Amino acid sequence: MQQSPIIILGIESSCDDTAAAVICDGKILANSIANQEVHKVYGGVVPELASRAHQQNIIPVIDSAIKKAGISKNEITAVAFTNGPGLLGSLLVGSSFAKTFSMALNIPLIEINHMQGHILAHFIKEKEDSTKMPVFPFLCLTVSGGHTQLVKVSDYFEMQIIGETIDDAAGEAFDKVAKMLQLSYPGGPLIDKYAQSGNPNRFIFPHPKVSGLNFSFSGLKTSVLYFLKREQEKNPDFISQNINEICASIQKTIVDILLNNVVKALKQENLTQIAVAGGVSANSELRKRILDLEKQKYNVFIPKFEYCTDNAAMIAIAGYYKYLKGDFANLKTTPQARMLL
């Protein structure tokens, strides 16, 4: 007797993107997302506005994903949702919908840690024969607006943080520096864009002295602030006249800090595989430099761009592996703004 396919609906609403995805036996069928443009005016995500937008977007996005997948809601085996970390109001919208959906269809409810989702995005299949995937154990660098971590991944849900930022995340550093440069939000992609035409060695910024495999970006942010103030006193048009070189130099510094610890961690843990996850893994300089590690006989894994930023496909694939374990949540589960890996 043929076994029924396992179809997981994934819901992601941890910050300002409302997303839904459908995965069947580990293979992606649909991945829909609604971005929120309203935050650009404020130079950052406004939590109250984000949760209101999620309420408007969640039903159309889920409907879109189910239609794209070519299934009916009654074929869905289980619903997985982001339970944290993230903005509490945003998480509540996704978790409330997931609970209602689970109860209405009498199907299992699966809660997912957002950061585990980013790591497990490497296991999304697009075809039956799929692209290459990391083999356990491997090292994962998770870099986003809220997190910067080095994680030793020994199994789908056996993960150990061996290094993390002690202050700002790398993505936060990109966005805050971009604000100093009077670039619009989100600033990280704009720094990447301007850096393409700049000399990354034009300006030198200090690297932090941090113990072990931890990161720090707060000092770099302060260094850039004083550097810009000093140069603008000499030349009020310094930023506009040197924007490409400034962006290239800052980007190089951040990537240098990340890569130095990645190489140390690979050697310390005796690992040969490095995976990258999170929104900052879309940065072209980071992707180029981390791929250069293949010349040193390391195996490098970077998801497609659409699986790097916040998305529901990563929640659905994490839900699929939790379903196989029989690891289900109950209706009493509550979202958590902070959550350990």
Topology, please?
Layout (H helix, E strand, L loop, with lengths): L6 E6 L5 E7 L2 E8 L12 H23 L8 E7 L3 H18 L3 E5 H7 L17 E6 L4 E8 L2 E7 L5 H11 L7 H8 L22 H17 L3 H31 L4 E5 L6 H8 L7 E3 L11 H13 L16
Parallel strand pairs: 1-4, 4-5, 6-9, 9-10
Antiparallel strand pairs: 1-2, 2-3, 6-7, 7-8
What general outline do the C-alpha atoms trace?
A: globular
Q: What structural class results from the helix and strand content?
A: alpha/beta
- Main sheet: which strands, in order across? 3-2-1-4-5
β content, as a range? 15-25%
CATH topology of the largest domain: Nucleotidyltransferase, domain 5
Give the helix tally. 9
The overall number of domains is 2
CATH-wise, what's the superfamily of the largest domain? ATPase, nucleotide binding domain
Helix content percent band:
25-40%
CATH class membership of the largest domain = Alpha Beta
Order of helices and strands: EEEHEHEHEEEHHHHEHEH
Give the strand tally.
10
End-to-end distance = 39 Å
- Uncertain segments: none
Radius of gyration: 21 Å
What is the average per-residue confidence, as pLDDT, rounded to a whole number?
A: 94
Main beta sheet strand tally, sense and closure: 5 strands, mixed
